Amino acid sequence: MALLKTTKLTKVFGGLRAVSNVNLEIHPGELVGLIGPNGAGKTTVFNLLTGVYEPTEGEIEFDGKSVVGLRPFQITQRGIARTFQNIRLFADLTVLDNVKIAYHFHVRYGLVESILRLGRYWQEEAEIEAKALRFLEIFQLADKKDEIAKNLSYGEQRRLEIARALAAQPKLLLLDEPAAGMNPQETQQLMEMIRWIRRQFNLTILLIEHDMSLVMGVCERIYVLDYGSVIAHGTPQEIKTNPRVIEAYLGEEVH
Ligand SMILES: Nc1ncnc2c1ncn2[C@@H]1O[C@H](COP(=O)(O)OP(=O)(O)OP(=O)(O)O)[C@@H](O)[C@H]1O
């Protein structure tokens, strides 16, 4: 069964069909790319999947159930987490607190307990801290745990955003241009981290990316959007050689 399935997913802004009849099917454990020229509708698809926008038409099923109409936080609780094209961190909080915050979506302690700071509260706080530190280690940020997020380099902030998304314990991770602004060495490291976290956490990943070497190197399947519609989907090799894709988007970039 597909983990994520969209059927005729459509979003109209005024007269513009930003997303038009998009059918995606992503299976558990897959690492899938979503590519397309500027303005093709990629981020709008993410905004639909995460409840930022409601579809004008169409269905989104996640884990066998519709998520249409749910609020973003409810969708996070169902198991979809994301990062953003423009990094969104709590800029004035520490690196560690940025990750710990994501856990608080999942941890429940009663009001009285949290006020009185009784046993379970402290125990859970300690567990959260240990888990958050583990994510920081994976993303090579553990030694920066007490730094203020806005003081990190751009590449580090991108990695922190992924660490925070993972801390929400998603089944499906949506990455919006994770390598944007990174140099080739950072991009290479990021690819390895993405592969590793997928295996380690049994994750399913859908990523938007302009960096073709990243998309082609890391994804098993790719969907190509153009003017809101899927014009092709297939393996990286199939996409590279698809004349419609070359015409719409890839041009001379990929050989
Ligand atoms: N809230 C909105 N209101 C009106 N139009 C919008 C809105 N959000 C997106 N659009 C339009 O929808 C189309 C698709 O935009 P979207 O950001 O999804 O494309 P994209 O493929 O992610 O582009 P890019 O690669 O440049 O980020 C664009 O024409 C954009 O201007």
TrEMBL record:
UniProt domain ABC transporter: residue ranges: 4-252
ATP-binding in keyword set: yes
Record keyword Oxidoreductase present: no
A GO MF label: L-valine transmembrane transporter activity
Keywords: ATP-binding, Nucleotide-binding, Transport
SMART domains xref list: AAA (SM00382)
Database matches in Gene3D superfamilies: P-loop containing nucleotide triphosphate hydrolases
GO biological process: D-alanine transmembrane transport; L-alanine transport; L-isoleucine import across plasma membrane; L-valine import across plasma membrane
Residue intervals passing through the bilayer: none
Record GO cellular component, one term: plasma membrane
Protein name, entry field: ABC transporter related
Organism: Thermosinus carboxydivorans Nor1
